Amino acid sequence: MVLLPVKLPSGKKLSLTAGGQNKLVKKIVEEFCPRFTPGGVIAYLGDAGRKQRHVEAGYLERLGVKIDEHGKMPDVVVHLTEKNWLVLIEAVTSHGPIGLKRHNELKTLFGTGRAGLVFVTAFLTRRAMTKYLADIAWETEVWVAEAPSHIIHFNGERFLGPYE
Asked: What are the helix and strand counts (H, E) for the chain?
């Protein structure tokens, strides 16, 4: 089986299965995280072929988050320690973005935690994003891998931060 090497900001190296959305997950880890969550701890990294790939369950539990094995985790969870935010990132290649329903599911899944929640939907291209524009929830962020230094803010009172 072909594997996709991924280097976490901590320097740890992982291998993801090459299919599905993992090409985008790799770009999130290696391009989004250094720009928008520098120094953040990747507490969860999903693998389209294995369901769970990298989980820091003890770390998340210390933040008040209990991982439900049957819960629908986002593709990447980053703890931005300096601000105490959990950045919840969905990699969209075939399934939809963080819409209102998914936003509420993630708030419930991570609601026991003490960190603020930030919601980000990631796409490989702007063209891929256009298919889902009408479904993206307000008060979320969108990142497009083909323009990695930019982020799109979907309204709300703050830019890249949690809402109470």
From this structure: 5, 9
C-beta separation of 4 from 23 below 8 A:
yes
Domain limits, the chain: 3-154
Tens digit of each residue's pLDDT (9 = 90 or more) over 121-154: 999 999 999 999 999 999 999 999 999 999 999 8
Instruction: Take residue 82 and report the two structure tokens written for it.
Output: 């300096």
Q: Whose structure tokens read 């419930």?
A: 108
Taking the C-alpha atoms of residue 16 and residue 6, their distance in angstroms, rounded to an integer, is 7
Please provide the DSSP assignment of 51-120 as one string: S-SEE-HHHHHHTT----TTS---SEEEEETTTTEEEEEEEESSS--S-HHHHHHHHHHHTTSSSEEEEE
Look up the CATH architecture of domain 3-154: 3-Layer(aba) Sandwich (3.40)
Place of tokens 């989004």: 32
pTM, entire model: 0.89
pLDDT at residue 155 in the model: 78
105, two tokens: 């599911």
